[in-house]
Write a structure and sequence with these properties.
There is one protein chain. The protein is of the alpha/beta class. The model has no long low-confidence stretch (mean pLDDT about 85). It folds into three domains: about 5-85, Arc Repressor Mutant, subunit A (Orthogonal Bundle), CATH 1.10.10; about 95-160 and about 260-294, 3-Layer(aba) Sandwich (D-Maltodextrin-Binding Protein, domain 2), CATH 3.40.190.10; about 165-255, Periplasmic binding protein-like II (D-Maltodextrin-Binding Protein, domain 2). Strands 4-3-5-12-6 form a five-stranded mixed beta sheet, covered by helices on one side. The protein has a five-stranded mixed beta sheet with strand order 9-8-10-7-11. It has helices at about 5-20, 20-30, 30-45, 60-85, 105-120, 170-175, 200-210, 225-230, 275-294, and strands at about 50-55, 55-60, 95-100, 120-130, 140-145, 155-165, 165-170, 190-195, 215-220, 235-240, 250, 260-265.
Length: about 290
Amino acid sequence: MPLSNWDEVRTAYQVARVGTVSGAAEVLGVHHATVIRHVDALEERLGVKLFQRHARGYTPTEAGRELLTVAQATDDQFSQLAARLSGAGSAMKGELIVTSLPGLSVLVTPTLARLQAAHPDLTVRYVTDTRLFRLEYGEAHVAIRAGAKPQEPDNVVQPLAEFRVALYASHAYADTHGLPQSEGDLASHRFIASESEEARAPFYRWLTGRVSSDRIVFRSNDAEARADAVAAGVGLGFLPVLPPRTDLIEVLPPRAEWASMLWLVTHVDLHRTPKVQAFLTALKEDARATCDGG
């Protein structure tokens, strides 16, 4: 039987993605009763159960997973089309979506604020996450990534700046635990690191090669939380050198082996749109001024 109601399929896709009726209702901006009605109607039309209902939410059945694979691809295509259409205009208005790794807001937010002040009709969404946003599906207009140069097809990649870090301690930590006098002393100190056991940043790889995992006493995927933990004296931690941390003690200065290259990534279809070009130009100017000032 043909699927004539895309709203029902889209609703089922969101239920499968977030796992609950209430979560899907929030994403779609509808009442939870509408979500239940759409799912029930779709199951009746198809003559199969798409979900197993349980106390914690909805889990797709085998039939549900097959349908939802197609639904996701269709939803991605709609998102891609919408992003390309919205980027086709010449006016500096509408939505600008920028994504980066956590911890880069000190570099990105001032640029976004300056751009929005100059163009009040521009709506900014700045999303920090470790996952790779799919520019080809319109999930973001600009992605700021670190590490090796991104190689995805159909993307325009430009260098932005070098992301440098140093190892810091608070005065409170130094008063209580002292400070390492050499790399050999590191093994007896306490550390703050990323929540992931397999953090990709070169300075975390360097650290885990020199201290045991039990010496990492505080982990978080939030860069601001890690900085707050260092300032509170929980342990030693790697922090960006820009802006300068005058409230902390620099235990080990920046090293080339700890640095990562930051890249600006845009999709070829949106790269030349005025709002993307305005943001890229402004961010490169600000990054250059910040680095020269540091």
